[in-house]
């Protein structure tokens, strides 16, 4: 079965374009530690592209001209109804692969891979061989080949989340502390305070960018005038 109205290289180019564009969105989300990241976006975009190609070109052989003068094309048998049911049904299968544990969500890439598999199966079943092979190869590239790129990119832009607890001689000592953090490029995301006897205690939620030596910054904080105690905890990656 040959595609009508689209060349082989154009077909591959459309699939590749879907990978590139959706991958750019996924790469940004991946760097932000969102549950649906690089591979998930690529797989969803790639599957959508193939579903569109299959719907547009794969079933033209089922169309026959109506008898009579000036007859237009009609479909005696509509296989797209079956395709529509596959698209709807794969959503339930993908939902079963998604696991939520507290604030953590796992299985989104698996759900997208199941969706891709449905698209490849539809294309292969319709005789859309090039689309099926190209999608399979590009999907494998997204799942396996891009893993290293994803990890390198995320490590380059990911920030550490730090809880900084300080005890100050007075509230006025907070201003030099905030100035030091700003000088280091450390973002203060939250600030809580409490009064303890004659001193002021603060808990600061910080976002530390890559390249910042936070242990060294912590020593600088401890050396500030008016800082009685300073400790950091809860270091973890955050987008």
Write out key terms for the chains shown:
2 domains, cell membrane, two-stranded antiparallel sheet, 4-stranded antiparallel β-sheet, alpha+beta, single chain, 239 residues, Alpha-Beta Plaits, membrane
How is this structure best described in words?
Helices cover 53% and strands 23% of the residues. With 239 residues, the protein is of the alpha+beta class. The chain has two domains: 8-155, no CATH class; 158-238, Alpha-Beta Plaits (2-Layer Sandwich), CATH 3.30.70.260. The strands form three sheets. Strands 6-7-5-8 form a four-stranded antiparallel beta sheet, with helices on one face. Strands 1-2 form a two-stranded antiparallel sheet. It has a two-stranded antiparallel sheet with strand order 3-4. Strand 1 (63-65) and strand 2 form a beta hairpin. The two termini are 47 Å apart. The mean pLDDT is 78.
């Amino acid at each position: 079965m040959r595609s009508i109205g689209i060349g082989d290289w154009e077909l591959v180019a459309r699939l590749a374009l879907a990978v590139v564009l959706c991958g750019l969105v996924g790469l940004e989300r991946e760097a932000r530690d969102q549950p649906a990241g690089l591979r998930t976006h690529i797989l969803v975009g790639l599957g959508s592209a193939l579903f569109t190609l299959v719907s547009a070109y794969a079933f033209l052989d089922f169309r026959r001209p109506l008898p009579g003068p000036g007859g237009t094309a009609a479909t005696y048998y509509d296989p797209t109804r079956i395709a529509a049911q596959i698209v709807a049904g794969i959503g339930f299968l993908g939902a079963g692969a998604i696991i939520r544990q507290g604030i953590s969500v796992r299985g989104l890439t698996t759900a997208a891979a199941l969706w891709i598999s449905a698209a490849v199966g539809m294309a292969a079943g319709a005789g859309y061989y090039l689309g099926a092979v190209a999608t399979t190869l590009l999907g494998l590239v997204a799942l396996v080949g891009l893993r290293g790129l994803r990890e390198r990119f995320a490590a380059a832009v990911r920030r550490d989340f730090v809880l900084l607890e300080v005890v100050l001689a007075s509230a006025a000592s907070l201003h030099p502390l905030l100035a030091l953090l700003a000088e280091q490029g450390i973002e203060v995301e939250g600030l809580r305070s409490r009064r303890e006897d004659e001193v002021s205690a603060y808990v600061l939620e910080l976002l530390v960018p890559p390249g910042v030596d936070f242990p060294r910054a912590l020593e600088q904080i401890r050396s500030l005038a008016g800082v009685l105690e300073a400790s950091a905890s809860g270091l973890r990656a955050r987008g």
